[in-house]
Design goal:
Blueprint (H helix, E strand, L loop, with lengths): L3 H28 L2 H8 L3 H7 L3 H19 L2 H4 L3 H18 L1 H12 L6 H24 L8 H17 L1 H7 L7 H19 L2
Helix pairs in contact: 1-2, 1-4, 1-7, 2-3, 4-7, 6-7, 6-9, 6-11, 7-9
Length: 204
């Protein structure tokens, strides 16, 4: 059972990470300050530095948290042998992430656009190993004739670009939707359309 000190630590770290995600999404790594993040978290700046010694350390934690959550969404490729089921669940999970965590997607997009200077090591190790595993699953589907021949890179890039568009370009989407965000029914319809588009592209 957790003691009070551990509970307080976990609560404060969660507040800081959530606040950091918001601030990094708006101002980028260079524009963000630990003072901004502490203020957003409702904590003294000294508390922030007690848990995270530097802005870079906090930024790295935020990035890795985002990528790990995205990677976890792809566990459906191991859980379901049927391509249709696996792809459906994966695309739905990615769309919901964009719906519920648009700022996280923007933080990641900014990092990649600026050369992945912080996330590069993680991408070249854990993420690359993860991708190789998922790529092999898609290649096996192709070899077994369960989906049409497709380059796994192209398939994943298409899924990522379409699903993350709903987070990274949400302002553009709202403008095209008469300056209104999608309601739940509308977003579900968009999700269904994206799923169908992906499934149709590989003929499952």
């Amino acid at each position: 059972m957790k003691d009070q000190k551990e509970i307080i630590r976990e609560t404060n770290e969660k507040k800081i990470i959530q606040a950091a995600e918001q601030v990094f999404a708006r101002f980028g790594f260079k524009g963000a300050t630990t003072e901004m993040i502490a203020r957003k978290a409702g904590l003294p700046k000294s508390n922030l530095h007690y848990y995270f010694k530097t802005k870079l350390q906090l930024y790295r934690v935020v990035l890795e948290r985002i990528l790990i959550e995205w990677m976890d969404a792809a566990e459906v490729f191991d859980q379901y042998q049927d391509p249709k089921t696996a792809l459906t669940h994966y695309v739905e999970a990615k769309m919901q992430f964009s719906r519920n965590r648009p700022l996280a997607s923007k933080v990641w997009a900014n990092e990649i656009l600026h050369g992945a200077t912080v996330a590069g090591d993680f991408l070249r190790t854990e993420f690359k190993n993860w991708f190789e595993d998922k790529k092999q699953i898609v290649e096996n589907w192709v070899q077994e004739g369960r989906i049409k021949p497709v380059d796994p890179y192209v398939l994943f890039y298409m899924i990522w670009s379409v699903t993350q568009h709903y987070a990274d370009f949400e302002n553009q989407i709202e403008i095209l939707n008469n300056d209104e965000p999608y309601n739940e029914d509308e977003y579900q319809q968009k999700t269904d359309d994206v799923v169908n588009m992906i499934l149709t592209s590989v003929r499952v």
